[in-house]
Design goal:
By secondary structure, the chain is mainly alpha-helical. The protein is 63% helix and 0% strand. It has one domain. The protein is elongated. The two termini are 14 Å apart.
Length: 71
């Protein structure tokens, strides 16, 4: 279960980070840093980074049962 949550979190972080990098092209259209950040915070696909980071943090620090296989 932890591996699945880890992979989902990693995938969501990758998708969100990709969108944030793609939206860096807005600077070439004359956006300021404040306008860019306001735009990023209004896009739902950029929140995948936060969701993915939360899932990764939970899976890394989650205490498993004693019969879990620890690799």
């Amino acid at each position: 279960m932890r591996i699945v949550l880890f992979l989902i979190g990693f995938g969501l972080m990758t998708i969100g980070s990709t969108y944030i990098i793609v939206y860096l092209n807005l600077f070439s259209f004359g956006y300021t840093l404040k306008e860019y950040l306001m735009f990023i915070f209004t896009r739902y696909e950029c929140f995948y980074v936060l969701i993915g980071l939360t899932l990764l943090t939970i899976t890394i620090y989650w205490k498993g049962e004693s019969d879990d296989l620890h690799l």
